[in-house]
């Protein structure tokens, strides 16, 4: 599959019901110095915005079903959903912007944004910097590590390090946020 298409599809999927972050794919793309990370991050963002729109509308028109489906995604539970709701009530749009830094999935904000009084347009506007900044940060940190700290490693070893890092990240995440 084409890199751009995969990036967009992954952004969409993770914004809906898939639980593996696009950061995994973007950091993999960063291993190849030829990949245009800004373009791939932007395409991932477009997919995420489309997925976020779908989840927002689902939460608006069928909140109970949307909530139940999102709550059933691995590492999302009732407590996490309540945390997201409380954060949006207390800090509004700032919660959507800071959520990714706290390990709070975008989809949990999307399905609850309408109930928090946030319009779709406003939700999408705050989603652009909230999602894109993290995508770019992860991709370029990975690129910096590959071109700096690990520049002498052969490709197979780079991939092994990349895989090990993500196994560790997800192991800790599922430990800290059990379903």
UniProtKB/TrEMBL annotation:
Keywords: Membrane, Transmembrane, Transmembrane helix. The chain crosses the membrane at residues 6-30, 37-61, 123-146, 158-176. This is DedA family protein. It comes from Kangiella aquimarina.
């Amino acid at each position: 599959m084409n890199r751009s298409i995969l990036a967009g599809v992954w952004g969409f999927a993770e914004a809906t019901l898939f639980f593996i972050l696009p950061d995994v794919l973007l950091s993999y793309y960063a291993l190849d110095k030829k990949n245009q990370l800004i373009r791939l991050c932007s395409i991932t963002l477009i997919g995420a915005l489309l997925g976020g729109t779908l989840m927002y509308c689902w939460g608006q028109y069928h909140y109970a079903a949307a909530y139940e489906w999102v709550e059933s995604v691995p590492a999302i539970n009732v407590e996490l959903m309540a945390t997201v709701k409380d954060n949006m009530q207390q800090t509004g749009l700032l919660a959507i912007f800071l959520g990714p830094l706290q390990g709070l999935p975008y989809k949990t904000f999307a399905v609850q944004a309408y109930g928090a009084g946030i319009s779709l347009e406003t939700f999408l506007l705050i989603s652009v910097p909230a999602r894109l900044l993290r995508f770019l940060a992860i991709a370029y940190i990975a690129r910096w590590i590959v071109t700096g700290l690990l520049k002498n490693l052969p490709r197979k070893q780079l991939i092994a390090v990349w895989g090990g890092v993500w196994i560790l990240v997800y192991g800790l995440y599922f430990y800290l946020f059990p379903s």
